[in-house]
Structure formats: structure tokens, C-alpha cells
Amino acid sequence: MENFNTKVNKAAAMFLNRRGYDILDEPWKRDGGMLPIDIVAKDGDSVVFVRARGRNAEFGEGFDDAGLDRDKAEAFAVNWFRDNIDEFADAQFRFDAISMIVMGADANKALIRHHINALSESCASDLPKTSEPSEEARAAQAA
Questions:
Q1: Dihedral sign, CA of 21, 24, 28, 29?
Q2: What does the alpha-carbon distance between residue 127 and residue 63 come to, in Å, rounded to a whole number?
Q3: CATH 3.40.1350.10 fits 4-120, yes or no
């Protein structure tokens, strides 16, 4: 019988595949330890490093939306690209996160959240917060 994490990773891979992603690698199959990335996929011209996490609905918990560890995920990506540089030297890449709540007697149903580009950061605007003209603008108006 498969353990829970293996089922979650297989469900995440199936979810991505049904949305047109090509699964390139499933590192969770080869390594007994915890890795920051569970699935490497291709979405168009981009390589996508995916972390998949799940929780069992029977325990009454919500989605596992714990963030990706940027340093560990990026180190994983560097190592993966080093091993695949000939094929993906010019590829764009991003980090996605999939979290799911697994339901059903056989744990064969799930609610899924897919966070695309989960490590992106929003940039704060450098523009003034008010609509009043800046000092430079007032000086230019006076001239």
C-alpha cells in the first residue's frame, strides 16, 4: 500500500498532466529524504519546480500552505539544471506549490490549490501615496 505522501505526489502529477504540463522528473520516487521539490514539469517553454503537500480531511485540517523554502528550492533547481543543462540551458523557470485536502474512504478525491509562481514577490511602488504634486513638480509649475 502506498503511503500518504506518495499518493499526494501522484495526484499532483496527474493534476499537472491534465492541465497540459509535461512531467520531467519526480524526485520523490528516488530519494527517501525530504526534498524541497516533489515534481519537475514543463509548462510551455518554462521548467516548473513543484512542491506538493496534502492533508487528510478526516483530521479536520485545512490546506497546507506552508511556503517554499527559497534557498532550498533554488539549490535544488541549480542541481537539477546542472544535470540537465544540455536540454534546458535557455529555459525560463519558476516555482509552483500545490496543496490539497484528500478526502474519501480510499483517499481518492481531493480539493487542490495550485499556486503558480509561488516564490514571486510583489514590488512596492516607489510612487508617492498621495495625489499631491511632488516638490519638483511644484517648482516646475512655478517657473
A1: positive
A2: 36
A3: yes
